User: What shape does this take?
Amino acid sequence: MTDLGLDYVPGLIAAYRAGFATDHMHLGYWPDDEALDWPAAQNAMMELHLDALALRDGLAITDIGCGLGSSLRVVNARFSDCTLTGVNIDPRQLAVCRETQPQGGNRLHWVQADAAQTTLADDSQDIVVSLEAMFHFSSRMAFLKEACRILRPDGLLVCSDILFSAPQTKLEEACLSVVTKDYAPWPQPLADISTHQSLAAQTGFQRASTLDISAQVLPTWQHIVSSRDDPLSSPQAAMRALHKAGRLHYIVSHLRKPGDGAQQHPLPKAG
Assistant: This one.
């Protein structure tokens, strides 16, 4: 396993335990300019991912980079007779996840593992989801290969990623350095949608859609960053500056492992 980094995690867990934050560890989503508050926008981001999965009872579902377990906690409450597996390299986050009790005959498993080496069996999962975690992984390609390996034929992966286009000014370069240092590990910050699409093809997936929802994520910063925060010292302010400059791109990909179509899950239209 690689060095954890993730120095911001203890503060997020403490805020969650104190009731000052939800169990989500991701940015918000504002569909169609809806006036959502911060918790509702974080929940909307989770629902955006779950809605694309055509979930039902009896599935084997794995969340890679599962955070504090929020997505699987919702699936556990809504569906029955599922095998739910959360994978995370960080034991601090998994300690929170393990407090969740299975419901409706579901089976919950929490696995400490690298995203590229989950220890799960070949062709064992119907669904893999990874919500806003790929940029922390040592290799996007290695993660996609692993997801394809553990998915059954016709299995579905929904994953989101934060990409940066090349900085155009010294200030943007400095902001990117602040983000990748304070939110480390962030080994491959520079990429674009075409990179994502190419990696999917190289790792054995059929691409259903790759969505750029950067505009719907942009309101995040007015909820979690003060106008007084300095982008040269605050990673959140640095991300806000890069986002407003058009350098930050929030991508959601819907990918399918090829099969005979017998177990195919419906997918959203390409965007």
About this structure: Residues 9-256 form a domain with the Rossmann fold fold (CATH 3.40.50.150). Strands lie at 60-64, 83-88, 107-112, 125-130, 151-164, 206-212, 248-256. The radius of gyration is 18 Å.
